[in-house]
């Protein structure tokens, strides 16, 4: 998959580096994949974590080529929050193109052709499938604390797997398409604490943020992944206001393009947006 030279040249430079000796930090790219979700994290020691896989392979590959230095040859951890098309569409091809060492995915099946292709690709790969239970994984210099699905969930959104990525005092929380009941349960279980960055649940939908969840996380930056002029009208103005009310800057890939964040061990971070725009 090739992109026009102009598109490649339009990509912004990565954020400024962290203070030595932690110059690389944790580099997180919340990719602009339209109305969907995908992110790529590169740890300080060069490991790769992919969170969700966009609506299609074309959307995922184009965003990676344009804004993340290309499709990775190896992925140390692939986290699939849930099994909706807009989060897993590009994953079957990614599993064939890259060496994916570990996968965490929601256990709730979906009755879709895309989900069947995902299962077939997982079966044909040499990846190790990890259960989406409450646990902490180590990927190089980054820790990944999993937030499990709501017990007894019967919808994909409520079966979302969350993840808290930490590098020193910097942390970023991903919550898939979790909705109010799941967010409340995570809070009750003590799984949620203040973080540096929140990837806003469910593309900024009204069902994906509560005032209590925003107060508990209190991020400096809230990133929404949504498509420009999407038919769901994401993000909802009330959701944007809730994050702003707790002091967060709110960025939306629909208008900012890919958002790149370099998190430093001292808790500071640097950002770049308008990548590929």
Mind explaining what this structure looks like?
The chain has 277 residues and is an alpha/beta fold. It is 25% helix and 27% strand. It is built from nine helices and 17 strands. The strands form three sheets. It has an eight-stranded mixed β-sheet. Strands 9-10-11-12-13-14-15 form a seven-stranded mixed β-sheet. Strands 4-6 form a two-stranded parallel sheet. Helix 4 (91-97) packs parallel to helix 5 (113-124). The two termini are 19 Å apart. Residues 1-10 have low confidence and may be disordered.
Name its key features.
25% helix; 277 residues; globular; 9 helices; disordered N terminus; single chain; alpha/beta; 27% strand; 7-stranded mixed β-sheet
Total number of beta strands: 17
| Share of residues in helices | 10-25%
**pLDDT < 50 stretches:** 1-10
SSE string, helix = H, strand = E? HEEEHEEHHEEHEEEEEHEHEHEHEE
The residue-averaged pLDDT reads 94
Structural category is: alpha/beta
- Major sheet, described briefly? 8 strands, mixed
Strand content is 25-35%
The dominant shape is: globular
Strand order in the sheet with the most strands: 8-7-5-3-2-1-16-17
- Count of alpha/pi helices: 9
Q: How big is the Rg? A: 17 Å
